[in-house]
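Lest this sound abstract, we let one protein speak, letters for residues, whole numbers for local backbone shapes, and leave readers to judge:
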Amino acid sequence: MSIENGQFLASQIPGAQFLCYADCNDHLIFAGDRPRLCGDIEEFVTGHRVVTALDSDRVLVTVLFADIVDSTRRAAEMGDQAWRRVLDEHDQTAHIVMQHRGKLVKTTGDGFLATFDGPGRAIRCALAFEAATRRLGLPVRAGLHTGEIELRGGDIGGIAVHAAAQTGIKPYFLHLVL
């Protein structure tokens, strides 16, 4: 079938659009970019294209992982009630994430996990958080990593999350891995 015949056929079908695939030189549907071809067929037949879970569940972000240095020892020394007050004050400083256009994913008891749409905001947030907790007498560590994460409901996962947690292991320092 010639390209002209395909164009004519498409012009006779209401709502049809003629598509020509440069990487496919015959009429066999299994040649060329099959996912794209199947998506085009699906969109023509149903009116929309479904995004695969693999595409929609991964996003590029900067992950910030922060926690209180030596929290277990400090909690044991202070006792539960005093430590609870310290944690309440610590949690109050988590609003810094939103001030830097970040998303607080979760608190971890003695820290938090957050994401940002860019490394600059995450770095400024980590520095502001460290300064705020220093005023409370709480040494914190923060780790940052920019990479793709997996969205898991309200949580996140993937290598980028682990990398951010690992970069913040040494106390009293802000570690950057970009």
In short: The CA atoms of residues 27 and 98 lie 53 Å apart. The first strand starts at residue 58 and ends at 68. The beta strands are 58-68, 103-107, 111-116, 140-152, 155-157, 174-177. DSSP finds eight helices and six strands in the chain.
